[in-house]
Amino acid sequence: MINGIFNLPRNIWLIGLISLCNDSASEMLYPVIPLYLSSVLMAGPRALGVIEGIAEATASLLKLFSGVIMDRTRSAKPWIILGYSLAGFGRPLIAFAGSWGWLLLIRFADRVGKGLRTSPRDALLASCAAPGQRGLAFGLHRAMDNAGAVIGPLLAFALLSWKVPLEHIFLLAVVPALICLFLSLKIQEAAPARPVAKHVTFDWRLGDMPPVFKKYLVVVAIFTLGNSSNMFLLLRAREVGMPSEYVPLLWAAVSAVAMIFSVPLAALSDKIGRITVLLCGYTAYGIFYFGVSAIDNSTNMLFLLFGFYGLFMGATEGVEKALVVDLVAEDRRGTAFGWFNLTAGLFLLPASIVFGFLYQGISPACAFVFSGSCAIAAALLLAFFVGNRRASCTCPPR
Predict the structure, then answer these.
(1) Which has more pLDDT, 234 or 32?
(2) What are the transmembrane regions (predicted)?
């Protein structure tokens, strides 16, 4: 596996480094936003649910658009540059937000950037990796992404411990944005294998996709309905007694577990099948959420439970995308990633809003039990509805 990692193409490493830098900034701010929302903007869980749900759902619409355009033009680099730049240079503006409405607008811009870059980036990753290395390639990307998610919260922990004002922390995010722009310009794309049509048609159809891929999208939808914004986890950690400066440290621990296990678990999916690994990941998610529903004033138990969440991330983030590549034809990968991301993102809107209302309107335990139940339901559907445990049916180009 080690030799395979270092033999991966240059573009895969470049994209991984870009994700590392971008997530260092994003995750430095991510644990701080709930604190900023509650202590400075005076808003609660419902506002948080609306902000995250709308931002993520809007991004998903653009993921479909950019994925389709990627298939038509065979060019990912412009979308990668634009997407990372829009998100990176937008985040520092949170320092000037005077209400949660302005925070919603800035988070919206951040997610627009994600929507424009994600599907083309994933399609480029798939095209650079050999069929037997797809899990490894996506696993390496997620590991580097999660490495950034370790660095970012540690920076936030240090800055909060040094009593740096929240506004100044947001402004510091401009530095990694500049690094991401520089690295994005270094990406090299091969010439398309077939001529690009002069008159591009916007072909977003799902009807001609393989039936097994459509079933997989149903599973993704059910799981995502219970996969609300991670900010609720950080909010809950603070409520059960975790000191504010330790909340980013807790999230860094999650990302560290995900970083460590992303590559071996994704590489394992190349051998034993994507669905087997995904079943383990969905089960870990359910255990985590059921555990958090019962926790009360035990910060030590929080660290143990959040380790399960890191295992879930390591077992699913790269493997889910590698499974998309396995199930569709090569010339439809961008569109397939668009539908995958659209499905996940659209269901994040009701997921975050429902979770926020259950959390504030009934009880936090009720909200966490709901999410855990969705994960178990998705695991059962994945096993019996999609069915092919090895899921290595790579479709030939049409």
Answers:
(1) 234
(2) 79-105, 168-185, 216-237, 249-268, 275-295, 301-319, 339-362, 368-388
- Cβ neighbours around 229 below 10 Å, total: 24
pLDDT at 288 over 80: yes
Instruction: Tell me the pLDDT tens digit for each residue of 28-43.
Output: 876 666 666 655 555 5
Asked whether residue 114 is domain-assigned, the answer is: yes
Q: Tell me, what CATH number does 143's domain have?
A: 1.20.1250.20
Please state the length of the chain. 398
Place of tokens 């039990």: 369
Structure tokens at 134: 């797809």
pLDDT at position 223 is 93
What is the count of structural domains for the chain? 1
Report the percentage of the chain scoring pLDDT > 70: 81
**Alpha carbon 198 to its chain's center:** 34
Q: Which pLDDT value is given to residue 397?
A: 40
3-state secondary structure of 392: coil
- Residue 395 falls within a domain, yes or no? no
Does the pTM surpass 0.85? The reply is no
Q: How far apart are CA 23 and CA 20, in angstroms?
A: 5
181 within a domain of the structure (yes/no):
yes
Place of tokens 């092919």: 388
The residue segments making up the domain with residue 149 are: 2-189+207-386
Please report which helix (H) or strand (E) contains residue 195, including its range.
none
Rg, Å, the chain Cα set: 20
SS3 396: coil
In this structure, the dihedral spanned by the alpha carbons of residues 162, 165, 170 and 174, taken in order and rounded to 10 degrees, is -70
Percent of the chain as helix, strand, coil, to the nearest 5:
80, 0, 20
Contact between 331 and 398 (Cβ < 8 Å): yes
Tokens standing for 354?
A: 């429902």
Amino acid (one-letter) located at 106: I
Q: What's the pLDDT at 42?
A: 53
Residue-level pLDDT at 153: 76
338 and 64 in contact (C-beta within 8 Å)?
A: yes
Within-domain flag for 394: no
**Quick one: tokens of 278?**
């995904």
